[in-house]
Amino acid sequence: MNEITNNEDQLELALGALKFVDDPEIGLNVVDLGLIYQVDFDENQKQIFCSHSLTTQFCPMGETINSGIKKALEQTFPDYAVEAKITFDPPWSSQKISEEGREFLNM
């Protein structure tokens, strides 16, 4: 996985929480799907910015996934404001799926 962050320790906590957010159509979490691109922490402003993708631009569950990501981060970091943003730059591809995800999907 190649998530970008400005705080590796906090990233591990964030990814742990995000492993509970599944893509409802696939049944695999957003971390192992490789949908999480960036998680940055602004300690002074107590804000988290998360950039993530979807498997397609036309994903009907996009808002549900975005909301789940935001909620998971808010619950894990209750003192922080969270912004979760969907991006397609770069576009997601199946190459971003983790080894665990590949095993789950029988790839």
Description:
The chain is built from 3 helices and 6 strands. The strands form 2 sheets. The protein has a 4-stranded mixed β-sheet, covered by helices on one side. A two-stranded antiparallel sheet has the order 2-3. With 107 residues, it is an alpha/beta fold. It is globular. The chain has one domain (4-104): GMP Synthetase, Chain A, domain 3 (2-Layer Sandwich). α2 (62-76) links the parallel β5 (47-52) and β6 (81-86). The two termini are 17 Å apart. Helix content is 30%, strand content 23%.
Side by side, the strands of the main sheet go 1-4-5-6
Distance between the termini: 17 Å
Quote the beta fraction.
15-25%
- Which structural category fits the helices and strands? alpha/beta
Largest sheet: 4 strands, mixed
Q: What is the molecular shape?
A: globular
**Low-confidence spans: pLDDT under 50, at least 5 residues?**
none
Mean pLDDT: 95
Could you name the CATH class?
A: Alpha Beta
**Secondary structure: helix percent:** 25-40%
Q: What is the CATH topology classification name? A: GMP Synthetase, Chain A, domain 3
Oligomer: single chain
CATH architecture: 2-Layer Sandwich
* Run of helices and strands: EHEEEEHEH
Number of helices: 3
What is the total number of structural domains? 1
Features:
107 residues, alpha/beta, GMP Synthetase, Chain A, domain 3, four-stranded mixed β-sheet, two-stranded antiparallel sheet, 6 strands, 30% helix, globular
Write a concise synopsis of the structure shown:
With 107 residues, the chain is an alpha/beta fold. It has helices at 8-18, 62-76, 99-104; strands spanning 4-5, 22-23, 28-29, 36-42, 47-52, 81-86. The chain has one domain (4-104): GMP Synthetase, Chain A, domain 3, CATH 3.30.300.
